[in-house]
């Protein structure tokens, strides 16, 4: 393993959200509501099939009004997962995208604002070698 210099603008990375495919979103909703209750987590959002990429129902579970665990049906359970890491600096999103591509990842959406989420959702997406969708996201207002 080689040692690389860490860029001066490195932001604190935290888990922003994770998404998994499940066989039955309603059954999983009931499970996660009960299982995650001790953590103070509840269902925060439900997205109907008419608004999803998979045609299935999506649920977002979390606390403090922010969903950190998403699950959906409409794809086979065990399909590649989605993992998003948060930063407070858009340069980290850009650097992640470039580094992931250089490491052999496949572009799944270059750095940019994703208005469909909200006007400050700046993200980039890369598929890892196993097809998992890895995202870097900055939700801090930036230059427009």
TrEMBL record:
Signal peptide: none annotated. Keywords: Dioxygenase, Oxidoreductase. Residues 14-139 form the VOC domain. One of its GO terms (molecular function) is dioxygenase activity. This is Catechol 2,3-dioxygenase. Pfam families: Glyoxalase (PF00903). The keyword Oxidoreductase applies. Gene3D superfamilies: 2,3-Dihydroxybiphenyl 1,2-Dioxygenase, domain 1 (3.10.180.10). The keyword Oxidoreductase applies. SUPFAM superfamilies: Glyoxalase/Bleomycin resistance protein/Dihydroxybiphenyl dioxygenase (SSF54593).
């Amino acid at each position: 393993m080689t040692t690389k210099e860490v860029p001066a603008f490195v932001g604190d990375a935290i888990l922003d959200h994770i998404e998994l495919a499940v066989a039955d979103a309603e059954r999983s909703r009931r499970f996660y509501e009960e299982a995650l209750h001790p953590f103070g987590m509840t269902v925060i959002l439900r997205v109907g099939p008419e608004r999803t990429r998979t045609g299935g129902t999506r649920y977002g579970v979390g606390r403090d009004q922010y969903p950190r665990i998403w699950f959906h049906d409409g794809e086979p359970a065990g399909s590649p997962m989605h993992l998003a890491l948060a930063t407070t600096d858009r340069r980290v999103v850009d650097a992640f995208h470039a580094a992931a591509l250089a490491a052999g990842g496949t572009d799944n959406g270059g750095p940019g604002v994703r208005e469909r989420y909200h006007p400050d959702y700046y993200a980039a997406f890369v598929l890892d070698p196993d097809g998992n969708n890895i995202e870097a996201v900055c939700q801090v207002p930036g230059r427009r």
